[in-house]
Design brief:
Number of domains: 1
CATH class: Mainly Alpha
CATH architecture: Up-down Bundle
Shape: globular
Order of helices and strands: HHHHHHHHHHHHHHHHH
Distance between the termini: 17 Å
Number of strands: 0
Structural class: mainly alpha
Length: 428
């Protein structure tokens, strides 16, 4: 659609943020996603420090992803039928309650996995609800700026959550950090309760609640996706991108410890903070120049850049000893010498930029190419697809990293992404 490629002006963003319901959604989104994403890395840090095993870290990632396979398709069907505001409120509250048992010291590894599974199960209802509610709160002409704000919010809280998780554990300790996570979930519930939906929107939602079987509604969504090529491409791109992020979540602690030889909590500022800056810049660039480029070109470029970054990450010793780097350091003052950490930070920045090229245009496609009647099911299907596709790579990543090393696995992922981007380019 032409509207996907329209320039997003700053004035449009101001207009969409002046819509009180959308503003409360974004505030709720900030607290909720911050809690959810901090929880991811807090548990990864806890598990890795407890076991020292990449395979054990795979277990926690799988506890996040398996519920998507089991429940996302069905949850999308019910989210389309239910009041999306109430779904968001209840799932936030439930997740806040489920986080509290992590306050118990020396909780058994099996219980950590089980609680994580339950939190992720509640999340399968939250995710399609928050994505599907946006077009019910803003006029169609402001969908693109709303998606841009929503996308930047998702990435900002994603990276902020990952950035803060390490320092919070170091400064406040495990007990207080878990308590903060629960408070953040409850705060998200509170701001969700402040969203006021117009009467005509409520009526419109009930019009979609035409009695039909769950199986029929699932078949309907498959039929729609087969016909809508843009939607299918967006789903494939987002699924692959998220699977790669999950794999890096498994490999990240081992990379910090075994390749960079630093504390795993340093992952927050060495890799995630610069990636956040890259994502933010990518969002701004897409807002200004997105209309000039096709969405498929953007996603192809994103995968290419990501692949190159993954290939270089294990080769830092070679890169830092290259003649170019030696020549650059010889011409710079001593305090500006380029080190391995500088190169890692730069690579992380480009990885974040690449992710924004994939996430924002693809999500805009899903929002604009679907209607209220099936948008929840589309996002439910996306979550199920991400979970199903991620299971094997995530499970293998941890085990292979323990056997052949983190560096070899990172290189293989990078090569696979470069090959994938080449295939996308050829079949453009």
């Amino acid at each position: 659609m032409d509207s996907i490629k329209r320039v997003i002006h700053g004035n449009d963003i101001v207009k969409v943020l002046k819509i009180r319901a959308f503003l409360f959604l974004m505030i709720s989104e900030f607290f909720t996603q911050l809690a959810f994403n901090m929880q991811h890395f807090v548990l990864i840090f806890i598990i890795y420090k407890l076991t020292g095993s990449n395979t054990a870290v795979s277990g926690i990632i799988l506890s996040f992803t398996i519920p998507a396979v089991l429940f996302s398709l069905v949850s999308g069907v019910y989210v389309d039928r239910w009041n999306k505001k109430k779904v968001m409120f209840l799932t936030n509250f439930i997740r806040g309650v489920l986080v509290l048992p992590f306050l118990i010291a020396d909780l058994h590894l099996g219980l950590i996995y089980a609680l994580t599974f339950l939190i992720a199960s509640a999340t399968q209802f939250f995710l399609p609800a928050e994505s599907a509610i946006i077009p019910l709160l803003v006029p169609k002409r402001l969908i693109m700026p709303a998606i841009a704000v929503f996308g930047l919010g998702i990435y900002a809280t994603l990276l902020l959550g990952y950035i803060l998780s390490g320092p919070f554990l170091l400064i406040f300790g495990q007990f207080n950090t878990i308590l903060i996570l629960a408070v953040l979930f409850f705060t998200g519930s509170f701001f969700t309760s402040l969203i006021r939906m117009k009467a005509k929107i409520k009526i419109a939602e009930t019009e979609f609640n035409v009695p039909s079987s769950v199986s029929y509604e699932i078949k309907e969504i498959f039929s729609f996706i087969r016909r809508a090529r843009k939607v299918m491409h967006a789903l494939v791109v987002l699924t692959i991108s998220q699977a790669v992020l999950f794999m890096f979540g498994v490999l990240g602690p081992g990379y910090m410890r075994k390749i960079l030889d630093v504390q795993i909590e340093s992952l927050s500022w060495i890799l995630l903070a610069p990636a956040a800056l890259g994502m933010g810049l990518g969002g701004l660039l897409l807002g200004s120049y997105g209309r000039k480029l096709k969405n498929r070109f953007l996603s192809t470029a994103g995968f290419s850049i990501s692949g190159i970054v993954f290939v270089i990450l294990p080769l830092l010793d070679r890169v830092s000893s290259a003649d170019f780097i030696h020549g650059l350091n010889a011409s710079l003052p001593k305090f500006m010498d380029v080190s391995i950490l500088h190169i890692v930070v730069l690579l992380a920045f480009f990885a974040g930029l690449a992710n924004s090229l994939i996430f924002i245009p693809s999500n805009a496609t899903l929002q604009l190419e679907t209607n209220e009647r099936m948008r929840g099911r589309i996002y439910g299907f996306l979550n199920a697809l991400i979970g199903a596709v991620s299971l094997l790579p995530v499970a293998l990543a941890g085990g292979l990293a323990d056997i052949i090393g983190v560096a070899s696995v990172l290189t293989a992922v990078g090569i696979a992404l470069v090959i994938l981007s080449t295939i996308f380019f050829i079949f453009e």
